[in-house]
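Q: Can I see a sequence and its folded structure?
A: Here is a first one.
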Amino acid sequence: MTTNCYLLIGLPASGKTTASKELAVAKKAVVISTDKIRKQLYGLETVQGEWKEIEAVLHEQILRNVSQGQSVIVDATHCIKAHRKVLLDLDERISWTGYYFQTSVDTCYRRNQRRSRSVPRHIIYSMDTRLRLEPPSKDEGFKQLLTVMEENS
């Protein structure tokens, strides 16, 4: 039995968390956020921490939900192709749909400044560089890859 799961990819403040809440209702899915994992591990959502630690918790939470037949929405930047590939190859029971949020770095930075859990500017720009160098593509293993275009605000 295949479980449909969803990976939201994009810069901090690109709209992923807002969309994940709406998608969770529409798809009857559980949202797993790497921000919440960071808070669990390091006490703050904005602490970047060690990816291997975060990834281990993320994978455990995904597999636990999938083993119970529950669809999952992963709310994460996932700007590094190798990290996406590991996730997409995690379990053959999962069919992944990706949502790539293409919000400009300037818009993300402006939105980020208004958030209580802001991410340092250099992190946002570094992630933007990575996504430009390694944008998600369907051949990474997505069943479907959808682009979410920028919403000005």
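Q: Show me another, different protein.
A: A second, unrelated one:
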Amino acid sequence: MLHNSSRNLLFVLLTALLMLSGCMNEDAQPQVGQNVTGRIVLSTAEIEGYTDAGITRSVQTLSDYTGYTFTLTGTSGIDGHVVNQTINLAGGPVEVEAGTYTLTVSNESAIQTGKGFPTYSGTSDEFALHVLETEVISIAMGKPSNSRVTVDSTSTFSTYYTDVCLTLSGGGRTIAIGKAGDYDEAYFPAGTTLTYTLTAHARRNKHLTDICTTSSTLPVTLVAGKHYTLSLTLDPESLTPGEIIPLISGSHTGEFD
């Protein structure tokens, strides 16, 4: 009897050990329904902005990223599959599967209306996201990926003409800038070659044709991150009534390195 009891006790102990070993092996592998995600939070980031004074850096908040596209790419840490998905970090933290990733943010796909706006893009360093952990991601966005265009008149031009309006066409959009235009600036994609129509009214007692109008193609293809100031000028020594006023590409003030 004692021998049978000892054998039964040994059986129970072995069974318990096998069950414990099974539980440990199960813990080593994610099971259906088990949490295998971590959280991504976008930290504040700095971008370079267009100003007449030069480069400025502004700290962005999450609300500033409304309209931006966030793309997560990398490899799942659970089963090794490739991840390429769009997530919305403008609303706060997002849960994604643990893995090794980079995060790209861009507003380049946003539709440009009116005078447009600067477009930016940037990609984070590679980072590892672990289960149940929160990773704070920082993305540095440098110079804009499009170009800013403004118009300026030399003092000589302003002596003879006023109410300047420069109608720019390029990249599928037409924008009127200048004192008589709809806007004081416009943004166009890099690589755009602009065409223009210039109108300006002659000042009183200058003995010029009332309205100066000319059209041409600018000898400049826009480069990313540059601020182009288009300067209106004329030579008073050779000025004749109704003379076509040339448009000259400016000195690219505000150029980003």
